[in-house]
Amino acid sequence: MRSDLPALIIIDMQKAMANPAAGQRNNPDAAERIARLLAAWRAADAPVVHVRHISRTPGSLFWPGQAGVQFQDALAPLPSEHVVEKNVPDAFIHSTLERWLRVRGIERIVMAGVSTNNSVEGSARSAGNLGFDTTVVADACFAFACTDYAGQARSADEVHAMALANLNGEYATISDSASVLRALTGM
């Protein structure tokens, strides 16, 4: 594994995210883009981390033992790839992620996954605060429609865009998969 390349961190790409019960989402091609990123990282022998959410709420799609907890088949980790389990949105809280990166001298990370406004945003904020050079791949993330605090329905695109705006420049650089792939292959 080449620690001189950024680590690809794939967040919560589990079978539950493909369940219609998860809600209306944006970026329908995000999983395909994540798969392309994953293939490129593997070809470059660059570090890959898969993050899996394990819920503490009975009945959740992510409750242990549910089919939804499993990684999506196309994005399943190889035995050589690191897996981090989390119980809260932020992949750095109560996990070994920061230590795993630091021990390997990895200072740059690229994040993709779901959901943009929850686990991706929470993890990217921590990464930025911890001093990691963080890139979030906008078209390899997605969000779900929701209602805001004032009762206004917000589309998945709106939720996604606002989460990216919250991160841009302060915690992370926002990019797209084509640019990230060009940068990886150009290194």
TrEMBL record:
Residues 7-178 form the Isochorismatase-like domain. Keywords: Hydrolase. InterPro entries: Isochorismatase-like_dom (IPR000868), Isochorismatase-like_hydrls (IPR050272), Isochorismatase-like_sf (IPR036380). One of its GO terms (molecular function) is hydrolase activity. Signal peptide: none annotated. SUPFAM superfamilies: Isochorismatase-like hydrolases (SSF52499). CDD domains: nicotinamidase_related. It comes from the Bacteria. PANTHER family: ISOCHORISMATASE HYDROLASE, PEROXYUREIDOACRYLATE/UREIDOACRYLATE AMIDOHYDROLASE-RELATED. This is Cysteine hydrolase. It comes from Massilia violaceinigra.
